[in-house]
Amino acid sequence: MKKIITFGTFDVFHVGHIRLLQRAAALGNHLIVGVSSDALNKSKKGRFPIYSERDRLEIIAGLACVDKVFVEHSLEEKAEYIKKYKADILVMGDDWKGRFDEFNSYCEVIYMTRTPSISTTEIIEVVKSVPNH
Ligand code: CTP
């Protein structure tokens, strides 16, 4: 059994998210996803997510490629989560390239290429800019 762990907010779920999760899942046979809490997202990105933490968890848990979800409350606890879930591989998007190398002592760390031209932030900006909405 090869276990993969990844983390993210996954707000306003989009194709970049599903591609990342499907590629992560393909590296092993058990995908665990830490979904950022609303408070963590506020501290990380300066705003609360559009979708609540409960809804984001439900969406991720409902995906065929995902086996387990949990709420990530603190960025400082990644090592504890990796150990707790006995992950063999940590997957992060390459926007984080190099910043998680310290976890190499617990598991393999793989950075995956992001899907170009899409992000939650951009979707929110586009929706805000549509007149009469
Ligand atoms: N991701 C990706 N390709 C994208 C957008 C996100 O592969 N175009 C990946 C990220 O690298 C991360 C995961 O999806 O591993 C969750 O990313 P998240 O930060 O929740 O999504 P973003 O769309 O990047 O959100 P934001 O714009 O708020 O930063």
Notable features of this structure?
single chain, 133 residues, alpha/beta, Rossmann fold, 5 strands, 34% helix, binds cytidine-5'-triphosphate
Bound molecules: cytidine-5'-triphosphate
Strand line-up across the major sheet: 3-2-1-4-5
Strand content: 15-25%
Query: In CATH terms, what is the architecture?
Result: 3-Layer(aba) Sandwich
Q: Flag low-confidence runs.
A: none
Class derived from helix and strand content: alpha/beta
What is the straight-line distance between the termini?
48 Å
- Overall average residue pLDDT: 96
The outline comes out as globular
CATH class: Alpha Beta
The helix tally amounts to 5
Please trace the helix and strand order, writing H or E for each element.
EHEHHEHEEH
Number of domains: 1
